[in-house]
Specification:
Blueprint (H helix, E strand, L loop, with lengths): L1 H13 L25 H19 L8 H15 L1 H4 L3 E5 L6 E3 L4 E5 H6 L3 H16 L2 H24 L4 H38 L7 H19 L19 H11 L11 H8 L3 H9 L4 H11 L6 H14 L2 H17 L4 H12 L4 H14 L6 H9 L3
Parallel strand pairs: 1-3
Antiparallel strand pairs: 2-3
Helix pairs in contact: 1-8, 3-6, 6-8, 6-9, 7-8, 9-10, 9-13, 12-14, 13-14, 14-15, 14-16, 15-16, 16-17
Length: 398
């Protein structure tokens, strides 16, 4: 099955990733055969390990215990893969600002908050969750475990045999074999990822959501990565090359075949962007704060500007101010003060915006205005945890 699936992707790539293909799309999922149970010693062992890990995860402080948010994300998954398949999955939202989601063999799905910050619609989220479910349904973890065991067994025997031979060519042959085995394992991982992409897109093609969103996920991620690199003064990244140690296909390749294999007739389907924005609303400030804490100015600014494509809100202006104030250059502080002011103009009771405004003004030689802003902050938030620090700061200005 993997060979035929990869053959479809290969045909797309050989054809120059023509996005207008009308003859090939990701195939629909096979009929649901019921929730499978672990089979064989290896799989039973993997499930036991994951059962123990899930018990720890469920009580972890890293998990966001918000029933409404978790239920919403689970519903998005169900809308893609169907309720019958979806019932075998337990979703956990992990407060971690990176772009990621994982799926364990026993049905544990971890969705990182950084992923929720980056996708813009239910269709985009469903594309990623469907991909993860594809790993689960095709038992990729078990396949990788067996492949790694075969590879390391081979290397172990080769090491023993080469140790009996003092010929330097024997050592060189072992080094070549080692390189070949690790390369094969990494290529195997990349093929698993391609197959999961194809399975996930197959779910999306037969769902009520727009499958073209899958390619958009990777297009947005490439744009963010490039913005991050430019801000750091680094070379523009290449998205069309496979590094030796890469565990996933390059983003450019994924965007190309996902766009080409999406059902063309489904391009007018809804993507659920409004519902997604509403569901994420209470958590967006928290996710933005975590993102800014990554100290990735270019990536964070790209994300804030992307979120603002639907209109600037007081929350977005505030966090843009926080981003610039965190970088701390004098021009940054001037810009930050302006962004805080924009937030206050939209929400005059935004206490934390007055705090940021006051601190930015004090550092840009505007102590009188800064003191007034901080006084307003304490007036709006009299129980502020940092009240003593703010009062000390304003007192030092006298």
């Amino acid at each position: 099955m993997m060979l035929s699936a990869l053959g479809v992707i290969g045909a797309i790539l050989m054809a120059g990733a023509a996005p207008q293909s009308k003859t090939r799309t990701a195939p629909p999922p096979p009929p649901f055969q019921g929730v499978y149970q672990p089979q064989g010693v290896d799989e039973i062992g993997l499930w036991k390990v994951d059962d123990e890990n899930e018990s720890k995860l469920s009580n972890s402080r890293a998990v966001i215990h918000d029933e409404a948010l978790t239920a919403y994300v689970k519903n998005v998954l169900c809308s893609a893969v169907g309720n019958d398949r979806c019932n075998s999955v337990r979703v956990y939202i992990v407060r971690e600002p990176s772009f990621n989601a994982t799926m364990s063999p026993n049905g544990t799905m971890r969705v990182f908050s950084g992923l929720l910050l980056r996708v813009r619609s239910e269709a985009e989220l469903a594309a990623v969750l469907g991909h993860e479910f594809g790993h689960f349904e095709r038992r990729h973890t078990l396949e990788r475990f067996k492949a790694q065991r075969r590879g390391t067994d081979l290397l172990s025997w080769a090491a023993v045999l080469s140790s009996f031979n003092n010929n330097p060519y024997a050592r060189r042959s072992f080094d070549d074999l080692e390189l070949s085995v690790y390369g094969s394992l990494l290529r195997f991982n990349r093929d698993n990822e391609r197959e999961a992409d194809l399975v996930g897109l197959g779910y999306l093609n037969v769902s009520a959501l727009r499958p073209q969103a899958a390619a958009r996920v990777w297009q947005n991620l490439m744009a963010e990565t490039e913005a991050s690199a430019v801000a750091k003064g680094m070379k523009r990244p290449r998205f069309d090359r496979v590094a030796y140690f890469a565990s996933h296909p390059p983003e450019g390749e994924r965007a190309a075949y996902l766009g080409a294999l999406a059902l063309p007739e489904a391009a007018d389907r809804p993507d659920g962007a409004d519902r997604y924005r509403q569901a994420m609303g209470p958590w967006t400030p928290v996710f933005l704060k975590d993102q800014i804490g990554l100290n990735d100015f270019g990536g964070s600014e790209y994300l804030i500007n992307s979120l603002a494509s639907d209109g600037w809100t007081s929350t977005l202006w505030f966090h843009r101010g926080e981003l610039f104030r965190a970088r701390g250059g004098q021009r940054d502080l001037v810009h930050a003060a302006d962004f805080y002011s924009q937030a206050i103009a939209l929400d005059p009771l935004y206490a934390d915006a007055y705090r940021g405004l006051g601190l930015a003004m004090i550092k840009t030689a505007r102590p009188t205005e800064g003191r007034a802003a901080l006084a307003r902050y304490l007036e709006l938030k009299p129980e502020a945890d940092d009240r003593a620090m703010i009062e000390l700061t304003t007192a030092s200005l006298n």
